[in-house]
Amino acid sequence: MAKTSTSFVCQACGAAFPRWMGRCTSCSAWNTLVEEADRKRLGKLAGPGASKVQAISEIAEDGAARVPTGVNELDRVLGGGAVLGGVVLVGGDPGVGKSTLLMQALAGLADKGCRALYVSGEESAGQTAARARRLAGVARSKDLLVLAENDLDAIERALDESKPRALVVDSVQTMRAQSMESAAGTVSQLREVAARFVERAKRDGIATFLVGHVTKDGAIAGPKVLEHIVDTVLAFEGDRGHSLRTLRAQKNRFGSATEVGVFEMTSEGLREVDSPSKLFLAERPINASGSVIAATSEGSRSLLVEIQALVGSAGGGSPRRTCTGVDSSRLAMILAVLERKAGLAVSTCDVFVNVAGGARIDEPAIDLAIALAVASSHLERPVAADVVAFGEIGLAGEVRGCARVAARLAEAAAMGFRRAITPASAASSSADIEVIGVRTLSEAIDAAM
Ligand code: TYD
Ligand code: MG
Asked: Probe ligand 1: pick from 100, 101, 134, 138, max atoms within 8 Å of CB?
């Protein structure tokens, strides 16, 4: 261990201690002890620099140099490719496919002659190489390098020697800086490790991807600490029972944070899905009650998904409400509106709602499709197979307008749908599809069934 006697320093009096304490025994101040390496960094950030006030109009833009990874869905979410000098944190549950995705991305970069280093702290070099060989087309390039290591200093030496332009660190929680006392994965280690990779990325212009494990509640471990340090935060999500994977930007300094990439996990790695709507609609039942197609919007594109509902008698017990892929409080609100404003007696029924294919939809424009699916199941009347629906539902039973109407209608028309039940405000938008604008939920139910 490098530091033994002066690892922690009191910010109030400057006294040094071998270990952390809540109270400084020298000046009696509380919570003033910080780890030495942290303190140096804080000083660097807060200290006086060569900064000056300038007119925005006179500052040249920092053009971000991008290299497409060749994994198109990833490139789109990043905003057009990996940024040299940019640091991306990729979070996701274990087994979702983070290592696979990033190995494919690095292979794509290496194929373009962009030297790429994959540092694994979790698997041996042999395991990493074996995985890479299983992926279609990967592991041919001499520019794709791998290192099994979790000591930060050793990794930095390897970076000096091999001088890669792209780097994956899998995972940031397994890396350890010897200058810090604490164990790998603790908050101070995470901060130190991430900060050193960020410094390195900026200095040498390395496109850096840090893999971060997600804790049980869905936050990337290292309580939000890393999100502020990095340029881009991506969340890789998917359901264990489905092959579908989605990649979302949660923060992006170099592009939009609303884009979504869609992949399918196959035996040859992740395959890009260029028409997600096709995938989502592949197995939909035709003319079955309780099934409605929703036109949703994700970033710059529209996605069609099937909403399924099943309404049954609760048999006198307390009714069950279960939903996957949509928000449960949203469903509760929609059921209340259906009961009070559209006269559907669903309050005593069991209600199950599911987005087919394992997608998750957050936007309120999904409301109308959920309501129609529930109504369709309750009334046992199918909604015609050539109909899509979108629109937000208000507490008064009104159907409210939503964003990106044209994109939704265009996607529906492209997928062969003939009619769209939409908010009244969308009715004027012309497209290759008949638009049925509705003002209230009751009007929508009449139009659909
Ligand atoms: P992995 O990339 O190791 O996930 P993470 O790094 O997020 O923990 O992927 C793990 C899962 O993906 C594993 O259950 C096996 C599966 N998989 C495939 O189905 N096909 C493949 O080509 C690969 C490499 C993995
Ligand atoms: Mg992994």
From this structure: 100
